[in-house]
Amino acid sequence: MVPEMLRELASHGLLHGQHPDAVMARVRVADSMSDAIAGVTYVQESGPEKRDVKAEIFSEIEKHADDHAVLASSTSIILPSLFTGHLARKSQCVVAHPLNPPHLIPAVEVVPAPWTSPDILERARAIQTEIGQSPIVMKKEIDGFLMNRLQGALLEECFRLLEGGYASAEDIDAGLKDGLAMRWSFIGPFETADLNAPGGIRDYIERYNGGYLKVYEKAQHRADWLGPALQEVERSRRTALPLEKIQDRQNWRDRQLMLLAAHKAATKS
Amino acid sequence: MVPEMLRELASHGLLHGQHPDAVMARVRVADSMSDAIAGVTYVQESGPEKRDVKAEIFSEIEKHADDHAVLASSTSIILPSLFTGHLARKSQCVVAHPLNPPHLIPAVEVVPAPWTSPDILERARAIQTEIGQSPIVMKKEIDGFLMNRLQGALLEECFRLLEGGYASAEDIDAGLKDGLAMRWSFIGPFETADLNAPGGIRDYIERYNGGYLKVYEKAQHRADWLGPALQEVERSRRTALPLEKIQDRQNWRDRQLMLLAAHKAATKS
Fold first, then answer.
1. Is residue A11 part of a domain?
2. Which of A190, A216, A250 sits opposite B172 (nearest CB)?
3. Closest by CA position to A108, among listed A157, A64, A72, A61
4. Cα dihedral sign for B117, A214, A236, B97?
5. The CATH number of the domain where A237 resides is what?
6. Engineered SS bond to A233: which of A169, B52, B125, B229, CB 3.0-4.6 Å?
7. How many whole angstroms separate alpha carbon A261 and alpha carbon A223?
8. B142 within 8 A of A218, measured Cβ to Cβ
9. Least CB–CB distance from A188: residue in B161, B173, B216
10. Is residue B23, in this structure, part of any structural domain at all?
11. Mean pLDDT in chain B?
12. Cα A225 to Cα A177, A222, A253, B218, distances in angstroms
């Protein structure tokens, strides 16, 4: 599976000029924790998303790790303070949460615990940059980190619009893919706003803050993500895509992401 | 300016095979409202964003309009009920709000007033589809319509993260452009979630609703969009882009959007 991905990446110019075999030659399956970890500069843990399991894995990791190794976890939901506080090497631990699929989406959020050393955080950032990822470095931890907080805020409003009967699930997705997310996919929301008023971001906010306040005022209740709105979005999705075709569509998504990554690399300013 | 845009669109295959001159030949500047409106099937009003001004323009429009013409306004912020209620032809009025720049972003939200006839709403949708736009048809009006509600929800969380000192403005933008918005730019947030769990959207929500609830619980205050967070994002943006270069960057954004539109057309499944 990995060799095939490497060939596809190379064919789209996404291996930074390296031959797939040269990359594959650097991959090795280790027989033990000590074999995997002794002497390395960076560890990426990707075990089950359970606090106690992560705490145990990190206890084992630290036994074999060097003094300056970055000890990173892929967790998307567990605060780093919740599974590293008991460690002697707790200052070497961070979260480095990639988006799915990580070989096609560059963003990785790097999240410190209160006791993570600034040097480790900086080295995690530098290593992610060096391998071609785009590290998003948080200054402190919070539930959802950065990306799931932004995704959650957007989904919450999507569910509210659906629950309130304002639009269909298809039209909500279309408003993103044929609208808002086209700009966000290469400039982000702050730069989008910055370019949408003659005087930049301050001008934009001063013009539209009042309008957005009205939007905010009508969003002061939690949508029920498990109620009729979910039935509606499920009906819509299963009409568009039967469950047995979900793997095919995931493969299609990954091909589209690869083409988009190649497009972004080719048009980068 | 329009002929130049048409040539650029044609060179990227975005004029549906038409010659730019043939499109330009259909554009005519009218000397009067009656000249512009008599006998047409669709009117798109793009006057100043002021309720009273729109109300007056629509009073003038309806004097000359046919019985079956769609009378649409480009407003991004004024509810259609607020400037069409006094009209004899109020059932013919809708909002058709495009995103900026409209010739490069397909999404147009079509928003009825309570008295808009279903036939007019359907014809507005059909005409937008026919000209190659992607109409998002709302079932009823609400402040911010659909797209500014979603943009507002996202910006609100961006400001909260900045205000709380969790990440820099640059990193927040990077989390979208190098992360979340890559997926949303071709599948939208509901389909993204649908493809992120083996059992589809219901499975995804049942797995992660608890996590998102924690995210939501730490988002229960309005961020101050005009306070220190704005100073910070303004500092960040003005460091990245001096104000006198904003027009250059808008031109760059539009070229990137054109390339992205061409890319999306070429890779559409």
1. no
2. A190
3. A72
4. positive
5. 1.10.1040.10
6. A169
7. 34
8. yes
9. B173
10. no
11. 96
12. 22, 9, 24, 17
Measured CA to CA, the distance from residue B43 to residue B25 in angstroms comes to: 18
Q: What is the CATH number of the domain that holds B55?
A: 3.40.50.720
Q: Decide if A250 is inside a domain.
A: yes
What is residue B93's predicted lDDT score, i.e. its pLDDT?
A: 98
Interface probe for A, chosen from B150, B252, B255 (most Cβ of A below 10 Å), is B150
State whether A179 and B107 contact (CB < 8 Å): yes
Q: What is the extent of the structural domain holding A243? A: 147-267
Domain final residue pick, A84, A118, A137 = A137
Sign of the C-alpha dihedral computed for residues A198, A201, A205 and A206 taken in this order:
negative
B162 and B258 share a domain? yes
Residue A173: which of B155, B191, B252 has the nearest Cβ?
A: B191
Nearest to B180 among A140, A150, A182 (CB): A150
Q: Inspect the interface and report whether the beta carbons of A178 and B233 lie closer than 8 Å.
A: no
Residues A92 and A157 in one domain: no
Say whether pLDDT at B269 is over 80.
Answer: no
Chain B residue nearest residue A166, CA to CA: B139
Closest alpha carbon within chain A to B138: A167
Which residues of chain B does A226 touch, with a Cβ-Cβ cutoff of 8 Å? 205-206, 209
Q: What is the DSSP letter of A142?
A: -
Q: Do A152 and A112 fall into the same domain?
A: no
CA distance B218 to chain A (A): 8
Are A115 and A151 found together in one domain? no
> pLDDT under 70 in chain A at which residues?
269
Contact B172 A215 (CB under 8 A): no
Q: Which residues of B touch A176 (CB under 8 A)?
A: 150, 184-185, 188-189
Instruction: With respect to residue B217, please indicate whether it lies within any of the assigned structural domains.
Output: yes
Which chain B residues are within 8 Å of A164, Cβ to Cβ? Answer: 142
Measure the CA–CA gap between A240 and A231, rounded to whole angstroms: 14
Check whether residue A117 and residue A36 sit in a common domain: yes
Q: What is the mean pLDDT of residues B83-101?
A: 96
Report the pLDDT value the prediction gives residue A269, as an integer from 0 to 100: 60
Per-residue pLDDT band at B84 (split at 50, 70, 90) = very high
Higher per-residue pLDDT: B73 or A5: B73
Size of the A and B interface in Cβ pairs below 8 Å: 360
